[in-house]
Design a protein that fits this description.
Order of helices and strands: HEHHE
Structural class: mainly alpha
Largest sheet: 2 strands, parallel
Radius of gyration: 13 Å
Number of helices: 3
Shape: elongated
Length: about 80
């Protein structure tokens, strides 16, 4: 579920900015470690993914564009 939600954010950034942000597995692991509380259901997962990736992916894409990255160029997120 975390990887799927992160992929949606990546797809949205690519569609709007033309830059593909590659989210490293360790980033997804960190989100899992900070978001999964079985008693609370899925809400903490979605809010944590949004908090960690929402603005960060946009900032990474803008940073890459400012530095002349070509369209659809991968931008690593570690």
């Amino acid at each position: 579920m975390i990887a799927r939600t992160a992929a949606q954010y990546v797809d949205e950034v690519q569609a709007s900015a033309g830059i593909r942000v590659d989210v490293a597995p360790r980033v997804l692991d960190e989100i899992y470690d900070n978001a999964v509380f079985p008693a609370h259901g899925t809400r903490p997962v979605f809010s944590t993914v949004h908090a960690v990736l929402g603005g960060s992916l946009v900032n990474a894409a803008l940073w890459a564009i400012e530095r002349g990255a070509p369209p659809a160029a991968p931008c690593p997120c570690h």
